[in-house]
Design a protein that fits this description.
single chain; alpha/beta; five-stranded mixed beta sheet; 46% helix; globular
């Protein structure tokens, strides 16, 4: 179980996450039913470091996925959204989590959401239909773990999120929930 994530600002990592964000925007033109915000980067970060205790989050996810994640590197990002680094080569041992300075949700919810993505990535090894969107569907499980309304999701995903939550509440099996996504594709 990971107990603490140390976050730092790294200009090279920030540029990397901006490229990833811009590629996503150019490709999709929307964020699953939400308008893409037009945020002008008006803040320049020179240095920022902080630690976040994530014991409660990782302890819960260790049980959901019946596994632990080895290492999470935390970076502060100036992109409009927080995200994980999961579009390059799959790395089973470690992950990068980018926390956006523009978040308007409580830190614990954002960090919990992104860590859920990391667990889902490691568990599924990205071998699931429509992985990029599927990782968003499954955060609905956070509502059972941490309280209703923690993970609202995207408008285009509500129907499948409802199905996943229904299966989750009945079985508490991530594998049974994954079958919903696999069946939806068939």
């Amino acid at each position: 179980m990971i107990k603490t994530i140390k976050f730092k600002y790294d200009k090279k990592e920030d540029k990397k996450v901006w490229r990833r964000y811009n590629n996503f925007v150019a490709k999709n033109k929307t964020i699953w039913g939400r308008r893409i915000p037009n945020i002008k980067q008006i803040i320049s970060v020179n240095q920022a470091d902080f630690d976040i205790d994530v014991r409660e989050i990782t302890s819960a996810y260790d049980k959901v996925f019946d596994m632990s994640v080895a290492k999470i590197n935390g970076y502060i990002a100036t992109t409009p959204f927080s995200m994980i680094d999961d579009d390059g080569k799959f790395n089973k041992k470690e992950s990068n989590l980018y926390y956006s300075i523009y978040n308007n949700c409580p830190v614990s919810i954002v960090i919990g959401h992104e860590i859920f993505h990391i667990y889902f990535e490691k568990y599924s090894e990205r071998k699931i239909p429509n992985y990029d969107e599927a990782k968003e569907y499954f955060t609905v499980i956070m509502n059972d773990i941490f309280g209703n309304g923690v993970s609202k999701g995207y408008p285009e995903h509500q129907e499948i999120r409802d199905k996943i939550l229904k299966i989750w509440l009945k079985t508490h099996s991530i594998d049974e929930c994954i079958k919903v996504v696999q069946l939806a594709r068939d």
